[in-house]
Amino acid sequence: MVRFVRVSKQYPGQSRPSLRDITLNVERGEFVFIVGPSGAGKSTLTRLIYREELPTSGQVIVGGVNVTRLRPSQVPYLRRNIGVIFQDFKLLPERTVYENVAFALQVTEASYREIQRRVPAALELVGLLDKAHQRAQELSGGEQQRVAVARAIVRSPSLVLADEPTGNLDPDNSWQIMKLLLEINRMGTTVIVATHAREIVDALQRRVVALEDGVLVRDDQKGSYGYAI
Ligand SMILES: Nc1ncnc2c1ncn2[C@@H]1O[C@H](COP(=O)(O)OP(=O)(O)OP(=O)(O)O)[C@@H](O)[C@H]1O
């Protein structure tokens, strides 16, 4: 599903690369945590997957497509198949829960009928159908992140990327979000989660890819977070 072949990334103006010679293979249907200290390169790695950034060298292949060679006009097609969840939710605060999720479909020119079918199903999955017509800004942080999860999955993407999805949440809400991501994975979606949530990573015993200073230092099938804070 996602393949990195000797990928390095150095941002313009930076003296050191943020990722160095990363080779990584994530199969379809996997659930993978990306861990590492602040600045290790976790966000950079996720941004390369949905082509928010381009590598300085190496290849990034997503669903068989070499995203480093995509023309800009093709990027939206790549992103249709990837749901992205961020630490700060990135919702439209004045819009309703329903509208926030529906927008993800409207940009793909989905039919009215399809929107009417998919949005309630996504909201049902995250347990927010009863809040569909509330404005996003009226919801708690945990609820807002659940809206963001619904928005990420409403197009039934084959890949969901979550960059620090629990960074702004308390432990209970963090667990809720991780359980949703696990549920989405059980339904067949590949899920990649960059996170600092040590307790959750340790409890779940899933594949853990660890970065340190831009280098992939560990890739364990049943891993733990593994760092002293
Ligand atoms: N747009 C950018 N321009 C220049 N440097 C950047 C940019 N984004 C990230 N960096 C640098 O790249 C390195 C890796 O950053 P990145 O955000 O990928 O790390 P991270 O592991 O996600 O950190 P955190 O856990 O704090 O979010 C850092 O040194 C950071 O300063």
Automatic annotation (TrEMBL):
Subunit relationships: Homodimer. Forms a membrane-associated complex with FtsX.
Described purpose of this protein according to its UniProt entry: Part of the ABC transporter FtsEX involved in cellular division.
Recorded superkingdom: Bacteria
Keyword Cell membrane: yes
Membrane-topology annotation of the record: Peripheral membrane protein
Protein name according to UniProt: Cell division ATP-binding protein FtsE
Domain ABC transporter: 2-228
Chain ranges passing through the membrane: none
Entry's Gene Ontology BP terms: cell division
The species this protein was found in: Caldinitratiruptor microaerophilus
Family: Belongs to the ABC transporter superfamily.
Name of encoding gene: ftsE
Cell division keyword on record: yes
A GO cellular component annotation in the UniProt record: plasma membrane
InterPro entries: AAA+_ATPase (IPR003593), ABC_transporter-like_ATP-bd (IPR003439), ABC_transporter-like_CS (IPR017871), ABC_transpr_LolD-like (IPR015854), Cell_div_FtsE (IPR005286), P-loop_NTPase (IPR027417)
